[in-house]
Protein backbone atom coordinates (compact mmCIF):
# COMPACT_ATOMS: atom_id res chain seq x y z
CA UNK A 1 0.00 0.00 0.00
CA UNK A 2 2.80 2.48 0.78
CA UNK A 3 3.90 2.79 -2.86
CA UNK A 4 0.56 3.52 -4.53
CA UNK A 5 1.48 7.21 -4.88
CA UNK A 6 5.11 6.78 -5.94
CA UNK A 7 6.37 9.77 -7.92
CA UNK A 8 7.35 9.60 -11.59
CA UNK A 9 10.32 12.03 -11.60
CA UNK A 10 11.65 13.58 -14.80
CA UNK A 11 15.23 12.99 -13.62
CA UNK A 12 16.77 10.30 -11.37
CA UNK A 13 16.26 10.83 -7.63
CA UNK A 14 16.70 8.63 -4.57
CA UNK A 15 14.01 5.99 -4.23
CA UNK A 16 13.03 7.29 -0.77
CA UNK A 17 12.16 10.67 -2.25
CA UNK A 18 10.04 9.05 -4.94
CA UNK A 19 8.21 6.87 -2.42
CA UNK A 20 7.52 9.64 0.09
CA UNK A 21 3.97 10.89 0.05
CA UNK A 22 1.38 12.31 2.43
CA UNK A 23 -1.69 10.08 2.75
CA UNK A 24 -4.91 11.04 4.44
CA UNK A 25 -5.86 7.40 5.14
CA UNK A 26 -4.03 5.82 8.08
CA UNK A 27 -4.30 2.21 9.24
CA UNK A 28 -5.30 1.14 12.74
CA UNK A 29 -1.78 -0.10 13.46
CA UNK A 30 0.54 1.17 16.19
CA UNK A 31 3.98 2.59 15.47
CA UNK A 32 6.64 1.06 17.71
CA UNK A 33 8.54 3.18 20.20
CA UNK A 34 11.75 2.00 18.55
CA UNK A 35 10.63 3.39 15.21
CA UNK A 36 9.52 6.66 16.80
CA UNK A 37 12.90 7.04 18.49
CA UNK A 38 14.62 6.60 15.14
CA UNK A 39 12.33 9.14 13.46
CA UNK A 40 13.17 11.79 16.02
CA UNK A 41 16.82 10.77 15.97
CA UNK A 42 16.77 11.56 12.26
CA UNK A 43 15.29 14.98 13.06
CA UNK A 44 17.97 15.46 15.69
CA UNK A 45 20.74 15.24 13.09
CA UNK A 46 19.26 17.73 10.65
CA UNK A 47 21.33 20.77 9.68
CA UNK A 48 20.59 24.06 11.45
CA UNK A 49 21.93 27.60 11.52
CA UNK A 50 24.81 27.81 14.03
CA UNK A 51 23.81 24.30 15.14
CA UNK A 52 21.01 25.91 17.15
CA UNK A 53 18.64 22.96 16.64
CA UNK A 54 15.59 25.16 17.29
CA UNK A 55 12.99 22.45 16.65
CA UNK A 56 10.80 21.02 19.38
CA UNK A 57 8.17 18.28 19.03
CA UNK A 58 5.23 17.45 21.27
CA UNK A 59 4.15 13.83 20.64
CA UNK A 60 0.99 11.90 21.43
CA UNK A 61 0.04 8.34 20.55
CA UNK A 62 -3.20 6.41 20.79
CA UNK A 63 -1.62 4.38 23.58
CA UNK A 64 -2.54 7.40 25.74
CA UNK A 65 -6.02 8.43 24.51
CA UNK A 66 -6.25 11.55 26.70
CA UNK A 67 -2.98 12.95 25.40
CA UNK A 68 -3.89 11.99 21.85
CA UNK A 69 -7.22 13.82 22.07
CA UNK A 70 -5.48 16.82 23.59
CA UNK A 71 -3.09 17.12 20.66
CA UNK A 72 -5.82 16.32 18.14
CA UNK A 73 -7.79 19.28 19.49
CA UNK A 74 -4.93 21.55 18.41
CA UNK A 75 -5.63 20.78 14.75
CA UNK A 76 -8.18 22.64 12.68
CA UNK A 77 -11.43 20.74 12.32
CA UNK A 78 -10.79 19.79 8.67
CA UNK A 79 -7.57 18.03 9.72
CA UNK A 80 -9.11 16.37 12.76
CA UNK A 81 -11.53 14.53 10.46
CA UNK A 82 -8.79 12.34 8.98
CA UNK A 83 -5.85 12.75 11.40
CA UNK A 84 -7.82 11.12 14.22
CA UNK A 85 -7.13 7.76 12.53
CA UNK A 86 -3.33 8.15 12.68
CA UNK A 87 -1.66 6.29 15.56
CA UNK A 88 0.78 9.13 16.24
CA UNK A 89 0.44 12.91 16.16
CA UNK A 90 3.19 15.44 16.71
CA UNK A 91 3.05 19.20 17.15
CA UNK A 92 6.06 20.88 15.55
CA UNK A 93 7.43 24.00 17.21
CA UNK A 94 10.53 26.11 16.75
CA UNK A 95 12.41 28.52 19.00
CA UNK A 96 12.51 31.96 17.41
CA UNK A 97 15.63 33.23 19.20
CA UNK A 98 19.21 32.00 19.50
CA UNK A 99 20.10 30.49 22.86
CA UNK A 100 23.50 32.19 22.94
CA UNK A 101 22.41 35.82 22.60
CA UNK A 102 18.60 35.83 22.57
CA UNK A 103 18.64 37.46 19.12
CA UNK A 104 16.05 36.56 16.47
CA UNK A 105 16.80 33.39 14.55
CA UNK A 106 15.77 34.12 10.96
CA UNK A 107 16.41 30.48 10.01
CA UNK A 108 14.18 28.97 12.70
CA UNK A 109 11.26 28.01 10.45
CA UNK A 110 13.61 26.77 7.74
CA UNK A 111 15.46 24.59 10.24
CA UNK A 112 12.25 23.09 11.62
CA UNK A 113 11.39 22.18 8.03
CA UNK A 114 14.74 20.47 7.59
CA UNK A 115 14.26 18.47 10.78
CA UNK A 116 10.78 17.36 9.77
CA UNK A 117 12.00 16.46 6.28
CA UNK A 118 14.71 14.25 7.81
CA UNK A 119 12.10 12.64 10.05
CA UNK A 120 9.85 12.05 7.06
CA UNK A 121 12.53 10.35 4.99
CA UNK A 122 13.46 8.10 7.93
CA UNK A 123 9.79 7.21 8.22
CA UNK A 124 9.61 6.37 4.51
CA UNK A 125 12.65 4.11 4.87
CA UNK A 126 10.77 2.24 7.61
CA UNK A 127 7.57 1.76 5.61
CA UNK A 128 5.80 4.56 7.47
CA UNK A 129 4.06 7.64 6.11
CA UNK A 130 4.02 11.18 7.47
CA UNK A 131 1.44 13.81 6.60
CA UNK A 132 2.64 17.30 7.46
CA UNK A 133 0.01 19.99 8.00
CA UNK A 134 -0.01 23.72 8.60
CA UNK A 135 -3.65 23.64 9.76
CA UNK A 136 -3.23 23.89 13.51
CA UNK A 137 -4.62 26.14 16.25
CA UNK A 138 -1.44 27.81 17.57
CA UNK A 139 -3.16 29.71 20.39
CA UNK A 140 -4.85 26.56 21.68
CA UNK A 141 -1.58 24.64 21.48
CA UNK A 142 0.21 27.41 23.37
CA UNK A 143 -2.44 27.38 26.09
CA UNK A 144 -2.73 23.61 26.50
CA UNK A 145 1.02 22.93 26.46
CA UNK A 146 2.26 26.14 28.09
CA UNK A 147 4.49 26.91 25.11
CA UNK A 148 6.75 29.93 25.77
CA UNK A 149 6.26 33.14 23.80
CA UNK A 150 9.68 32.71 22.23
CA UNK A 151 8.62 29.41 20.63
CA UNK A 152 6.26 29.19 17.68
CA UNK A 153 3.90 26.22 17.28
CA UNK A 154 3.88 25.99 13.49
CA UNK A 155 2.85 22.64 12.02
CA UNK A 156 1.75 19.13 12.93
CA UNK A 157 2.56 15.61 11.77
CA UNK A 158 0.36 12.56 11.43
CA UNK A 159 2.54 9.44 11.48
CA UNK A 160 1.57 5.86 10.73
CA UNK A 161 0.92 3.20 8.11
CA UNK A 162 -1.10 3.97 5.01
CA UNK A 163 -4.60 2.52 4.73
CA UNK A 164 -7.02 1.88 1.88
CA UNK A 165 -8.49 5.23 0.72
CA UNK A 166 -11.91 3.59 0.98
CA UNK A 167 -11.64 4.14 4.75
CA UNK A 168 -11.76 7.92 4.22
CA UNK A 169 -14.86 10.12 4.16
CA UNK A 170 -16.14 10.49 0.61
CA UNK A 171 -15.11 14.15 0.32
CA UNK A 172 -11.48 13.41 1.21
CA UNK A 173 -11.04 10.12 -0.65
CA UNK A 174 -10.09 11.66 -4.04
CA UNK A 175 -7.02 13.28 -2.45
CA UNK A 176 -5.44 9.87 -1.85
CA UNK A 177 -6.46 8.60 -5.27
CA UNK A 178 -5.22 11.54 -7.35
CA UNK A 179 -1.80 11.20 -9.01
CA UNK A 180 1.15 13.13 -7.60
CA UNK A 181 2.13 16.14 -9.68
CA UNK A 182 4.86 18.78 -9.46
CA UNK A 183 5.96 21.89 -11.37
CA UNK A 184 8.70 21.32 -13.94
CA UNK A 185 12.20 22.44 -12.92
CA UNK A 186 12.17 25.35 -15.37
CA UNK A 187 9.38 26.99 -13.35
CA UNK A 188 11.45 27.33 -10.17
CA UNK A 189 15.16 26.98 -10.99
CA UNK A 190 16.33 30.34 -12.39
CA UNK A 191 19.54 31.93 -13.60
CA UNK A 192 20.45 35.42 -14.77
CA UNK A 193 17.07 36.96 -13.90
CA UNK A 194 13.90 36.09 -12.05
CA UNK A 195 11.78 33.71 -14.08
CA UNK A 196 14.55 32.89 -16.51
CA UNK A 197 15.05 29.14 -16.38
CA UNK A 198 18.54 27.89 -15.66
CA UNK A 199 19.79 26.32 -18.87
CA UNK A 200 20.92 23.16 -17.15
CA UNK A 201 17.35 22.18 -16.26
CA UNK A 202 15.59 22.91 -19.55
Key features?
202 residues; alpha+beta; NADH Oxidase; 4-stranded antiparallel β-sheet; two-stranded antiparallel sheet; 7 helices; 6 strands; 31% helix; 18% strand
Please tell me about this protein's structure.
With 202 residues, the protein is an alpha+beta fold. The protein has a single domain, classed as NADH Oxidase. Helix content is 31%, strand content 18%. It has seven helices and six strands. The chain has a four-stranded antiparallel sheet, with helices on both faces. A hairpin with a 1-residue loop joins strand 5 and strand 6. Helix 2 packs antiparallel against helix 5. The chain is globular, with a radius of gyration of 18 Å.
Topology:
Layout: H1 15-19, H2 33-44, E1 55-61, H3 65-72, H4 77-83, E2 88-95, H5 108-125, E3 129-133, H6 138-145, E4 151-160, H7 173-177, E5 190-191, E6 193-197
Antiparallel strand pairs: 1-2, 2-4, 3-4, 5-6
Helix pairs in contact: 2-5
Count all strands and give the number. 6
Rg calc: 18 Å
Question: What class would the helix/strand composition place it in?
Answer: alpha+beta
What overall geometry do the principal axes of the alpha carbons give? globular
Work out the strand percent.
15-25%
Brief account:
By secondary structure, the chain is α+β, with helices and mostly antiparallel strands. It has seven helices and six strands.
Amino acid sequence: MSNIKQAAPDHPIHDLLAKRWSPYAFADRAVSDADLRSLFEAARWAASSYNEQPWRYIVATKANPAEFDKLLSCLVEANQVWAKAAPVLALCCTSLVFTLNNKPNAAALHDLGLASASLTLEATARGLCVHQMIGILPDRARQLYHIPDSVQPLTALAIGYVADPATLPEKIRPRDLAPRTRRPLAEFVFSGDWGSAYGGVR
